[in-house]
Design goal:
Strand content: 25-35%
Number of helices: 5
Shape: globular
Oligomer: single chain
Strand order of the largest sheet: 5-4-3-6-1-7-10-9
InterPro entries: DHFR-like_dom_sf (IPR024072), RibDG_C (IPR002734), Riboflavin_Biosynth_HTPR (IPR050765)
Largest sheet: 8 strands, mixed
Organism: Nonomuraea soli
CATH superfamily: Dihydrofolate Reductase, subunit A
Pfam families: RibD_C
Number of strands: 10
GO molecular function, one term: 5-amino-6-(5-phosphoribosylamino)uracil reductase activity
Distance between the termini: 24 Å
Radius of gyration: 16 Å
CATH class: Alpha Beta
CATH architecture: 3-Layer(aba) Sandwich
Protein name: Dihydrofolate reductase
């Protein structure tokens, strides 16, 4: 059965997006700084240019592409304006939503309920990992459900001061650090969630 890996970028003070995130401003006010490591340097919604990046961040991104399916929430999907209606990844994307309408882009699979989304994602992923790609609410739901095997957190060297937190006090879990690599733009951490001697949820 496919393992489940949740993965997200946060600020040093724990936010995955700045204030007022939504369509046209998916990472919130000032939140572009979180993903400098993804784009290889400073970028913004108004000026979506990127730098050359570095080998460490590029290797982390390459590892993320090895998943067999990804699950995202409707909030992230809408904030990203459905990626222009085209799946930007080389894997199926399952969108968690309570609003399935005929006008949604056909390039994605829409599912109601985290259990059904995971079952469908595992069915197509085979032996590859199922990635839980965000946003924060979706990762929180899967952590509370106790089904996440590993958690990847990319800490950007920025303090946002406010926004959407990853850890909201609604769950707890024991973690074991598996890896830590650093670049000038992020610290990339991977944790085992639960397992021998560890508790997945409180």
């Amino acid at each position: 059965m496919a393992r489940v890996h949740a993965d997200i970028t946060i600020s040093l003070d724990g936010f995955v997006a700045g204030p007022n995130d939504g369509p046209g401003c998916g990472l919130g006010e000032g939140g572009e700084r979180l993903h400098y490591w993804v784009f290889g340097g400073p970028w913004s919604y108004e000026h979506p240019t990127s730098g050359e990046g570095n080998s460490i961040d590029a290797e982390v991104l390459a590892g993320a592409s090895e998943a067999g399916a990804v699950i995202v929430g409707r909030g992230m999907f809408d904030a990203g304006e459905a990626w222009g209606g085209k799946n930007p990844f080389d894997m199926p994307i399952f969108v968690l939503t309570n609003r399935i309408t005929d006008d949604l882009p056909a390039d994605f699979t829409y599912v109601t309920g985290i259990g059904e989304a995971l079952a469908q994602a595992r069915a197509v992923a085979g032996d590859r990992t199922v990635a839980i790609g965000g946003g924060a609410d979706v990762i929180q739901q899967y952590l509370r459900a106790g089904v996440v095997d590993t958690l990847g957190i990319h800490i950007a060297p920025v303090v946002l001061g406010a926004g959407r937190p990853l850890f909201d006090g609604s769950f707890s879990a024991d973690l074991r650090q598996l890896s830590c690599v650093q670049s000038p733009l992020a610290t990339h951490l991977t944790y085992q969630v639960g397992g021998p001697g560890l508790s997945r949820t409180s």
